[in-house]
Amino acid sequence: MRRIDPVVSDELESIWTRLQAHLADAVGEPAYGIWLAPLAPLELDGSELLVRAPAQARRWISDRYGNVLAAAAIAVIGPGARVRLASAEETAEGEREAAKATGGSSRRRASASSAARVGSAHESEPLENPKLTFDQFVIGDSNRLAHAAALTVAEMPAQAYNPLFICGPPGVGKTHLLSSIANMVLAHSPGLTVRMTTGEAFTNAFLAALSGRSIDSFKARFRHVDVLLMDDVQFLERKTRTEEEFFHTFNALYDCGRQIVLSSDRPPADLQQLEDRLRERFAAGLVADIGAPDIQTRMAILRKRVDHDGIDLRDQRALALIAERVQSNVRALEGALIRVVAFSSLTGRELTAELTAEVLDGLYPPVAPRAGASIADIQSAACSLFGLSPEELISSSRTPRVAWPRQMAMYLARELTGASLPAIGREFGGRDHTTVLHACRRAGKRIADDADARLAVEKLCDSLGVPLP
């Protein structure tokens, strides 16, 4: 039994410091600062870590972050590690009882009945989070395709899209969809074996197998499954031996008709540090992009979170303010809500729009209003600058004379109007949102690399009377 005291504090403090780093990386700084930073380690008994938590937040932390704590403990302490949460009051009571029973010794831990037990994760990989299900996923224009594809894969593994490659920036719901697939398969197809991992966990497990001469066991663990889900596959870039191993793992699963689902912060074509043969296989199935949620989706996410967590919210303007201020991703959106709710709870003030503005002003200042140009204005200006007709601009022509002005117009429509990708696509001949996103990325790269392209954009913005985005 190891406890923080002058004799063993250095060892346990070292463990706790590394575990805190894992937690902050997993949940993000806002949520970590509010909920997990106040935790304190009490003792380590074998592979069980006892952690003190504020009494009023212990149940919330156990329910909301139990799997995260378990995964971090396993990553730092080793396989089989688990975490127990106890409030300061419960710990003190347990020590008083222990002192009576042992003649004054205070080095016993609080009893198991007085602490909330956190579920353990499997080996060094994160288990699918049972709370991340399709029912809890909020569908919007930015994620509709990815959601539909993930649901289809969960209902019919290896029969529809294989592999399924979900890409998008951090915090937009990729991990949620992977966990939703795992949970549905386990619930409705209990005879199938499912393994969910990350690019980093796969790499670490492979290196450990090499050093421990247990490569056969490693191969069996990842190749003898029915569904393999790998989050953050971009972590495999520039890791030659791991890339080669995953290439053979991928082939072994695919050739046997097993389902493969991957996620990344970039589409396969942009993973330039990966071997061509891997990128080709990733792109061979369905590539589904997820973008930042629009204002309607952000509001729906916040309402679902408020209902799910039982938050007493009487001023709906508070949610509208959060949705307006926090536009980047779902993780930041939920983190902002947690911050506001925590501030209201800790200060005893009612959760109002005014309180919300006070809490968010430092991290998320008011959003500057968009320039007044509309999509129609941008299309008209592009036609004038490049000598095109409106019909040509939105046509299916891919000639450079038409394609570049169209890409530039889509790029400016996204930057200047705040319209969603599907909305922009509808104004450009009914194109889907992935086509618009591809055009915006191509235009952005060309503007950054080509002085003539940047000059053309400047002229177009001047004609619209708006600043260059």
Concise summary:
With 469 residues, the protein is of the alpha/beta class.
Number of helices: 20
- Indicate the low-confidence ranges by residue numbers: 1-8, 94-125
Rg from alpha-carbon coordinates: 26 Å
The fraction of residues in strands falls at 5-15%
Query: Would you tell me which CATH topology of the largest domain applies?
Result: Rossmann fold
Protein architecture, described:
It is globular and about 75 Å long. 54% of the residues lie in helices and 10% in strands. A hairpin with a 2-residue loop joins β2 and β3. The longest helix is centred in the first third of the chain and has 20 residues. The chain folds into four domains: 116 residues, GMP Synthetase, Chain A, domain 3; 156 residues, Rossmann fold; 66 residues, Helicase, Ruva Protein, domain 3 (Orthogonal Bundle), CATH 1.10.8.60; 90 residues, DnaA protein, C-terminal DNA-binding domain (Chromosomal Replication Initiator Protein Dnaa, Chain: A, Orthogonal Bundle). The strands form two sheets. A five-stranded mixed sheet has the order 1-2-3-4-5. The protein contains 20 helices and ten strands. α5 runs parallel beside α6, α11 packs across α12 and α15 runs antiparallel to α17.
